[in-house]
């Protein structure tokens, strides 16, 4: 094993890969922003930006698979809403919500790191229960649809690695 100081970072991806990643992230977030304008309801949330990093920058990662994107966002948000409505929005509730969300995502094999922020977002903004559907479910589905199109245009049949 190399000493930590001798370890090297992996090489940067080719410029074409980077350009397609950038395009995919921009199209996904632009689509969600457009739906916000069209519906008059805010759909953009910070965790979706982090989801795009995984879905377009690291599409082979288990964290970037559709079940993880959709399931992770849904479960973590549901936990946040449940904690908000039972324990409130304090620091202990925040800690418990993030811990429970991680445990539930691990148990269901839907770990998605950006979704770990969802309980904190829920406790900070106190949204209605419909938040779980819009923007969370619909936004996650938009990102997955864009990832399917962009990643498979980049390399046919490459995404997803698995559905379930």
From TrEMBL:
Domain HPP transmembrane region: 11-160
Highest taxon, organism lineage: Bacteria
TM ranges: 15-35, 42-59, 65-84, 91-108, 128-150
Pfam families, A to Z: TM_HPP
Keyword set, alphabetical order: Membrane, Transmembrane, Transmembrane helix
This protein's name: HPP family protein
Taxonomic lineage of the native organism: Bacteria, Pseudomonadati, Pseudomonadota, Betaproteobacteria, Rhodocyclales
């Amino acid at each position: 094993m190399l000493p930590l100081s001798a370890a090297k970072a992996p090489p940067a991806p080719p410029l074409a890969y980077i350009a397609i990643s950038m395009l995919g992230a921009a199209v996904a977030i632009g689509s969600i922003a457009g739906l916000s304008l069209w519906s008059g309801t805010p759909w953009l949330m910070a965790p979706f930006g982090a989801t795009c990093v995984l879905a377009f920058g690291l599409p082979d990662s288990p964290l970037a698979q559709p079940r993880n994107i959709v399931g992770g966002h849904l479960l973590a948000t549901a936990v946040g809403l449940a904690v908000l409505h039972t324990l409130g929005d304090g620091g202990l509730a925040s800690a418990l919500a993030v811990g429970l969300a991680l445990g539930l995502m691990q148990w269901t094999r839907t770990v998605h790191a950006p979704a770990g922020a969802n309980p904190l977002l829920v406790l900070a903004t106190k949204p209605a229960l419909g938040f779980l559907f819009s923007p969370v479910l619909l936004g996650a589905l938009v990102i997955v649809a864009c990832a399917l199109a962009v990643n498979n245009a980049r390399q046919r049949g490459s995404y997803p690695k698995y559905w379930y």
